[in-house]
Amino acid sequence: MGHIPAPPTRRERQREATYDEIVTVSAELLAEGADLSLRAVAARMGMTAPALYRYVADYQALVDLVAYELDKRATAEWAKEAERYPEDDPMARLTVACCAFRRWAIANPRAFSLVFANPVASHVTDRREALTVATSGCYLTDLLYQVWEKTKFPFPALEDLDPVVREAVQDPWIPAETSHIAPEDRGLVWIYIRSWAAVYGVVALEATMHCDPRVIRSGALFKATLVDWLPPLGIDGRQERERLIAILDEELARDRDAWPAP
Amino acid sequence: MGHIPAPPTRRERQREATYDEIVTVSAELLAEGADLSLRAVAARMGMTAPALYRYVADYQALVDLVAYELDKRATAEWAKEAERYPEDDPMARLTVACCAFRRWAIANPRAFSLVFANPVASHVTDRREALTVATSGCYLTDLLYQVWEKTKFPFPALEDLDPVVREAVQDPWIPAETSHIAPEDRGLVWIYIRSWAAVYGVVALEATMHCDPRVIRSGALFKATLVDWLPPLGIDGRQERERLIAILDEELARDRDAWPAP
DNA sequence: GTGCTTCGTTAACAGTGTTAACTCGATCGA
DNA sequence: TCGATCGAGTTAACACTGTTAACGAAGCAC
Predict the structure, then answer these.
(1) In this complex, is the C-beta atom of B8 within 8 Å of any C-beta atom belonging to chain A?
(2) Which one, A56, A73, A198, B129, has the greatest CB density within 10 A?
(3) Could you check: is the Cβ of residue A39 within 7 Å of any atom of nucleic acid strand C?
(4) How confident is the model at residue A173 (pLDDT cuts 50, 70, 90)?
């Protein structure tokens, strides 16, 4: 009891730093369009490939590690962008965060594939569990919860849900903090899932380029998808609606400036 | 003039058969959970790997070939299912086809990734062009067109569209037959794109398992997404709506029976 | 039959993940 | 402080991958 959290010894700090370098180097490789390989990562770190086995069990573990950390770093990026708007304006923050997510995905398609399109093999429970703590999911759903606290938008009652879904929202296996949601309000989780499916869909379509490049540049598809979600999230008033659309447009304009011309 | 279409010589037939075997064998490999490799394909065909270079330029070409053909075969599958409903009932056919698409994606996640999540590199025009003739896209959009012919559901006027989008729908780079759509009706293509994004999103989420398995089994997320699209497609009447939902439920029930228990 | 083309072979190279055996240095207990 | 221990890293090797080059053996055309 009263344990001091064990001051990290020198070796532990070194080890932690190595882990950090692994994911940083991996991110570099992905950004350069190369593909992630143990040997490439090791080489760029000035090591030989087998040395990496001191840090990851196998290649898949490397991928998982990098995916998890990239998700974390990307989320920090979005959160920072979102903080341009005040804490008591979660809807603005959510809008900005979604745009930042999309921007990140399109700028780093390989990283996106790694984190969000990396097929989860049948029942490898480790990877499932890793998914349920994904930083990005928790961040976005938390923002959505804050929106709900303000607008109290409607969500389906538990008894209106498909029984299986009811069970799923009561004991969710998704990356979201749900412990603070009252049991009778768990229908809210269904909104989490549905809205995530919507933005995930467009972003995946755009990031993998399975979409007209001009449509991607314009951002119109993404915008339309987000705008459709305003009423269900309790944004009814014309004024508030237009305020958010303005924020959205502003973010999308930033993208067009940032990306190179085709 | 009056050319007989050059009767396929023996060699040509042989070659065609070899191509067929390549994609069949590739499909087998993917279905078994193995990953697509030149050597594995060649071995299973009783050949050595370099021999495949007589048929494909390199590995990426193999992937593209297999992706294109799998898409074609899968589409034929969906179309066959859809034909259980009469030709003058395109909405029923579309519903069934979407369910068949989802069923196929979840049953063959690797094939799905190959065809629909395979990132198309920056501006390799060949692959872009291949995408614009994808059989599945043409089939589904054609069904959607038939629905429009019946219900005349509304679509945005050209001048209401983002200028870039307007250009995109007038000269579309998407897998859809658009030549028969009157120029002033090209706003319809925007519906093509948006509805495709919606179903693609859910199916991608489910096929890559980035989703609660129970939600996948229940089919509720997919159902909700499709149901949301009924009104925009001109399905307003309660009767017609319930008829289609019944069809939808029936298809989803089939899935639950077909898949193994978790 | 003589050429030419096409299909397939073997051999080899560079790259991948992965394991085993080994070295060197830091850390810790006596 | 000495000696044991553990941990990070090495090299060598194996079984894979895509890919090229050089070669052989069929089929087809004249």
Answers:
(1) no
(2) A198
(3) yes
(4) confident
Confidence category of residue A228, pLDDT binned at 50, 70, 90:
very high
A170 near B CB under 8 A: no
Task: Write out chain A residues lying below 8 Å of B201, CB-based.
Answer: 197-198, 200-202, 204-205
The nucleotide minimizing the C1' distance to residue A47's CA is D9
pLDDT reading at A25 higher than 60: yes
Tokens of A112: 């996106």
* pLDDT number for residue B128: 57
> Cβ of B50 < 7 Å from strand D?
yes
Tokens of A92: 């603005």
Min distance A11 CA to chain B CA atoms (Å): 36
Contacts of B63 in chain A (CB under 8 A): none
From the CA of A77, how many Å to the C1' of C25?
39
Please give the torsion angle defined by the CA atoms of residues B245, B249, B252 and B256, in that order, rounded to the nearest 10 degrees: 160
pLDDT, residue A2, reads 39
Q: pLDDT (tens digit, 9 = 90+) per residue, B213-238?
A: 999 999 999 999 999 999 999 999 99
